[in-house]
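Hello,

Our lab assistant flagged a job as stuck in the queue for most of the afternoon. It eventually completed. Since we weren't sure the result was trustworthy after the delay, we are filing this so someone can double-check. Below is the sequence as submitted and the structure that was eventually returned. Let us know if re-running is recommended.
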Amino acid sequence: MKILVIQIKMIGDVLTSSILFEALRKEFPEAELHYMIYEHTYPVVQNNPNIDKFIFTDKDRSLRNLIQMTKKEKYHAVIDVYSNLKTALITGFSGAKFRIAYNKKYTRPLCTHLFSRNIQAQTNAGAAIEKRMRMLSPLSPNFPLEIKPKIFLTEEEKNHAKKKLEKADIDLFSTLYMIGALGSSEKKTYPLPYLAELLDEIVRRTDANLLFNYVPSQKTDIENIYQLCQSETQERIHLDIYGKSLREFLALTSHCDALIGNEGGAVNMAKALDIPTFAIFSPPLNKENWNMYEDGKKNVSVHLKDYQPELFKSKTFKELSKDNTELYNKLKPSLFTDKLQHFLKQNSK
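-- returned structure --
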């Protein structure tokens, strides 16, 4: 029996949807499990023992080619977690007995089982986890309500990162934080002066060493944050230590006491490494959908809606996106300093 899961989206989504493979492997240990993803997202699922085959695609690969390939595999089930028009056609023409997707006008005539994206989470795993797990229910009644995503690093990768930190004279017996300084876009990035204020508070409270998650093309913005920080904070920032690949970032993060910064893929990856997280949501995002495993201690998040809910009444995502800058500027560090201090107390050496 072959089963295909389709998640042609970003890194955080690909990682989150990988939970389906752990569940499928436990329920169907002899099944052959395939994952269709963009190739650049592969590092977050690399070495996952529950996935037998990866099918890499990109925007240039033709739809006809993907449909033909999928039909040739003769899947028993295709689970289309992405559920856009392209993947709906791949799923619909796959010939699989079970063609599972989210309920949309173009998936209805093509799929055998449809699910709403809008659910009320029953556990602190959150809606993003539970709505994915629910997609497995047509295959068996035995699947759990939630499973936590996991990243599989090798000992060699972790040791290499440890040596890199030690070479930079970073004491691993002292507190070390990874800072998610920049979001996936400018609109998802907490105002840099506010972030610098938070970094000053973190160093003042913990005397921690700070690593930044960034790529070389973002160095100008990173240096701007550095310049906004107080001199005592600058002494604790190690700009030359960063992940030169996604796997190296993951290995470095595995040695940190927490990841603090903008909500996004890096936060989801840290959670999958069992590293505590403090996430700052941009105003248009639905916190309830992505605050996975939030417990107020190990995983914490903040959103302007937590403090000024009246600003979000009857507002659409489009309206919130238009007012993003104005709303972000209202999320001043002073609003959640107590919450941050509590988190630091729980997650520092």
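-- support follow-up --
The delay was a queue issue, not a problem with the job. The result is valid. The two ends are 49 Å apart (CA to CA). The chain has a mean pLDDT of 95.
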